[in-house]
Amino acid sequence: MNTKTLIDDLLGGSRLSEKEALSLMNTKGREILRIAEAADIMREKTAGDAVTYVRNQNIHVTNICKNLCGFCGFGRPAGSEGAYLYGPREIREKALLARKRDVTEVCLLSGVHPDFDADSYADMIRAVHEVMPEVDVHTASPEEVTYSAERSGLTSVEVLELFREAGLGTLQGTAAEILVDEVRQKICPKKVDTETWVRVIKEAHNMGIRSTATIMYGSCESVADRVRHLSIIRDIQDETGGFTEFIPLSYLYKHTRLYEAGIAGEGATGREDLLMIAISRLFLDNIPNIQISWGKVDRKLTQLLLISGGNDLGGTMFDDAVSTDAGADDADFFDPAAMQRLAEDMGRPLKQRTTLYELLD
After folding, report:
1. Residue 327: pLDDT above 50?
2. Per the count of CB atoms within 10 A, which of 121, 236, 341, 344 is most buried?
């Protein structure tokens, strides 16, 4: 397949097929730069020149998890060394700290605690919302919605409504990993299947609850699996328009059971990281924002990804135990001044945004 012809067609308005995306994903050599350039042109047309970020803070509620996925270095069994669980008082204290930091988004992150039900999650959301009613409380993946619904004898729609009443702003499009069930059985067998993940995301969107979309790549999936995942995300967005952004998450292999068992290698290469961002931009023509997860790749590569289709640097975070526990260095906090240095060095302005991508002064 001729890369130049394919890119010319794309920039002329054609939509990338799965077969064409697979061909681009397998690209090596200087043709990679041609793809990155095309993605950068598409980024400029779709999202403009600004490099955006949200001032947010993660609050890790517990690392106790029923799933203990093979790719995760964060989760712990209940009662194990290093396991913790914060209650409403501690969550409020962390929310008060977030307020002092002038954040506009709080991300509640947690293992899927085996004892949590719908009220448990609603109480967490409420604890933040009562302290910071003005912020977007960004939490609850389709996995957490489904599990808490089962524990409480509710439907997932009823749980989403309960969360919204408690103060939920936007839903986390995490727990997606790779939306191919054969892969999910290897890397996260206790999580919801693809059909359930898709159903809950659509339910949220149809209720007016926006969400992110993610992919976790570089463990033991094939390139074709990555493209299938992109296709599922694009189809959902065609139907609902509810995704705010797409976030490729490069697998961090250190301290994970998949790597230690020899099932997964040492994660994606720089070539794969670059192509994942670029082809996400080219394939997902209906999602305006492609986020670079700076905690998963180093900051010099982050800067190059800004000219390969990426337009958003995610958040300041202040804490990312999920990444650091899996072996990432320097993943806790990204100072906006450092973001500005990277962006302006590429000739792009840095702009602060809200969760829903409204630009702030």
Report:
1. no
2. 121
